[in-house]
Each structure stands twice: as C-alpha cells, then as structure tokens.
Amino acid sequence: MKYVNDFSVAIAEQLEGVLSEEDIKSIIEVPKFDQQGDLAFPCFVLAKKLKRSPVEIAQQLADQVHYPGFEKVVADGPYVNGFLNKQMVSRDVLTTVMTQDEEYGSYDFGKDHNIVIDFSSPNIAKPFSMGHLRSTVIGNSLAKIADKCGYSVVKVNHLGDWGTQFGKLIVAYKLWGDDDKIQADPIKELLELYVKFHEEAEKYHELESKAREWFSKLEAGDKEALNLWEWFKGESLKEFSKIYQLLNVEFDSYQGEAFYNDLMDETIEKLHQNGLVTTSEGAEVVNLDEYQLPPCLLRKSDGATLYATRDLTAAMYRYKTYQFEKSIYVVGHEQSLHFNQLKSVLEKGEYSWAEKLTHVPFGFILKDGKKMSTRKGKVVLLEQVIEDAIRMAKENIEDKNSNLQDKDEVAKMVGIGAIIFHDLKNERTSNVEFSLDDMLRFEGSTGPYVQYTHARAKSILRKSEVKSDTSGIEGLTDDYSWPVIKSIEKFPQIIVKAFEYYEPSQIAKYLIDLSRDFNKYYANVKILNDDEQLESRIALVRSVTIVLKEGLRLLGIKAPDNM
Ligand code: ARG
Q1: Which of 138, 328, 389, 543 lies at a CB distance of 3.0 to 4.6 Å from 415, suitable for a disulfide?
Q2: For 509-530, what is each residue's pLDDT tens digit?
Q3: Is the CB–ligand 1 distance for residue 219 below 6 Å?
Q4: Whether 354 and 430 share a structural domain
C-alpha cells in the first residue's frame, strides 16, 4: 500500500534516525479490525532500542505524528494506529483507476526481459488429461500475469510427440487399425490401439521388439513410419485445438519433443565435453550423486534418447533463442524429480542460466477423493466435461434471467469461467476436488459469483446518467465504501504477489473478497440516489467493474456485461 510509505515517512520524521524509514516500513502492519485503523506501527523494536516502555512511546508518537493523509493517529497500548483520510484516499484511488482503466495494476519491471512459459504440453495420440487441463489453465494465467508485469512472454506447448510409444502405436495400427474409425474419433481410437497393444504384448512378447524396431525406423526417418506419425499427430492436434479454442488459449510455439531430434547429438556431445557423461553398460548417463539424485539417462544402449535428453536440448535451444530471464515449466508435481535432474545436469555443466529454470508444480484433480485418471481406457473426455459445464451454466441462466440476450454466448463464458476459476482459486499445489455443481454456483467462492457481481455493477452503470469522467469525484466517507476502496487500492500489489509466487490463486481469492465487499455495499447503500456524492459512488461502481474484469482476464476468464 502506498500509504504505508506515507505513514513510515511521518513516523520517521519523529524518530530522528533511531529507525530507518525502511525498518519502519517493514514493521508496519495492517490491523485485523477496522476499529484499530488502517495501519498500525507496533513500538516493541523501538522500545528495546530506547530502553523505554512501548506503551509510553506509542502515546508520545501518536501525539506527535501529523500527516494530512491521516484522519487521526491514536495510541492503542503499544501500537500507534493510523486512520487514513477516507475522503482523500478514495478520491485518489477512484481517480487513478478511472484514468488508467484496464492499465490499472500494470507494471514495467519486466520490460526488455523474456519469460518462457512451458505449459499444457499434452501427449500425441493420448487423451488430454485433467493434469494437462490444470497446466493449461495455470500456465495461461501466469502468461497473462507476466505480461501485465511488462515481460515479453513466449508461450510454448512442448508437445509429447516423440518416444517409444509411437513404435507401439504403429505396430498396433498395422495389426488392428481402422482408418475410418481413427478419422471419426482419433483420440479414442488411438488410445484403444495403445491399450490393446499392452494387453496383447503381455501374451506375445515379440510385439515389444517389433515396437522398438518401428521406433528405430521412425528415428531413422523411414517414410512409412514418418507418414503414420504425422497423421496421428495431425489428428490429435485437431482434437486439442478444439479444447484450446473453448478455453481461449493460444501458444507462440508448438515445438514439441520431436522438434529437438536433430539437436540431440549436439547436446550429448556438449555434455561429454563438459566431462559430465559416463558410460554404463552401453548407456550414457550423467551421475548426480552430489545432488543426491539418481543419474540422468541421456541415451540408452540401443541409441534411443529420452524425455530428459529432449528437455535438456529444449532448455539449451530456448536459452539460445530467447535469452530468457526466466523459464518456467508448469507441470504436475509428479515430475519434480525430472526437473530437479534437468536443472542439476545444467548446473553441473556450469550453464550459468540453469538457475533461471523453475518448475511450477501443481496437485491432482480428484473425483470423490480419488485421482481422476484418463489411462487404461477410462477416459474422462475433457471436451464432454466442458460441454456439460456450459449446458449447466445455461440452465442456471434460464432460471435467473430468462430474457437475457446472447444466452449461449454468456453460458459459454460462465461455464468455462467456472471450470477455470475453480481450478485457480486454491493454491496450485493443493489437490482440486472436481464438482461441476459446486463450481457453477452463483454464490460462494466461484467464478460465476465474481462474473455475476461484475454484471450487477455494469447494470447499475447502465441505469445511471453519470458520464465516465473523473472531475466530479469528491471522495467517499461512509463505512460501506471504505472496504471496497481499500480492496481496489490493493489490486496492483496482488498482481506482483501472484507473479512472484507463480500463484494465480492470489488474484482469484482477491476477486472473491472484492466481490463480497462490493455486494455488501450494494445491499446497504442507495447508489443512484441523486445527491452530491452520486458521481463518487458511480466512480466506485465503475472502478469495481474495471478491477473485476481485469482480474478475471488475468485468470483467463471473460466477464459478460449481462447475465
Ligand atoms: N508431455 C508431458 C506430459 O504429459 C509434459 C511435458 C512438460 N514439459 C516439459 N518440457 N517437460 O507428461
């Protein structure tokens, strides 16, 4: 809060260097209860330094501190409590938000820096899992937050489009595949082929060696193998892009694992030159004992490279291409070991930029307490889930506002917004229990609740004749507007926090709080009453719409004007 600065300056003036402004700033707290003011300075540290009683010091300071930004400054035991001048602060905050509009809360500390965000990254010929959904939603939000902080963001979809599974798939396809079926429902068919391969391979072991053969052919650039692989990939991507379209997510690069094939030898060669590679039974590995980690396997004895080799290569390629300031991987916590190894190999190889890599992990999506799985044919088709959410949102809207225009468009925003918000409202490392009923409620901590609050505020604006200009803003002094003002004032700091911790939940939680405060205001204050504070009240409503809409946008959620 910028007023923390003001308060510490005012206190520092009285202390003549006993404590620095910085120290004072770090000591100042935001009191729990409104009656204790807006800011509090506890006097314990000072008391220790001066060898005097904190209560006495608080009393003395309270008498001396004067600052026009404060209505009053009073002692409360060992605390000095400052009460901000509501009129002045609210005028200030509302004018700022209305002037800056959607730029409110933007920063430029990321200017001239690149940040690479690797997210979503589903596997070709496999279903888009719940884990990929989480990665997509979290990564997309982090990209928007980073952009809001001024960074140039490179959004990378590191497709899982290479690996021995393609050998298996080709064998299965050649034995049991049906082109028409694959065309009609590629992901489902390809998954079934894959599952069938594993079932049959238990009986007929030679299938495994056949699969290895076909993968070798693929790696060697065999025409037939390549054509099949490309076909599988194209069909899968068509399916994935439906999901991305629904979620409104775009990428700057789809360079997946296969992209790095030609660069793999170079990577392994470099690591050899750095003296990192040892050979054990024909395989090339990097020993990571000193990091208390299992060795990182680079190349198997049959010459095949691995997921880790491709990630090492991708990291080097990305650093060369983007000179990133940060490179983050939004991937479930079950891959923590992999990313630890990745970073450690680069560190061991003295790549100074290794420290710029960050794994941003997240928990599982649960259904009735159990991990939602997409393996072994038990596919929860994500598209279906999304369509259900949209249908349920539409039913809710029919109930609430049956005359609404563009019902389908709004239902889409609400249904999808509900899924995204539900995912982002908890700290990302916690598991999420998946319940369509819960996430679609219009009350409680849900996306629709925030969207509804925004639409309600918009409808007030439609009813008012006050123009959106700032000259008539005198400020507000009542008790219901004050929490709303303070909340609006906090938005820019929330964004920095969300960025620093890679935690969109900071913003989601904030939006719930702001919505609650605003709805209380709405229930208790006659906003459209024609008196001299009308313009300030309208400015407050307008500012709320600006912040809610921008906050939702940072989560990847749309805010309908009407719902
Ligand atoms: N395709 C992988 C999976 O589904 C995720 C890839 C994440 N990104 C990366 N650079 N490793 O498990």
Answers
A1: 389
A2: 999 999 999 999 999 999 999 9
A3: no
A4: no
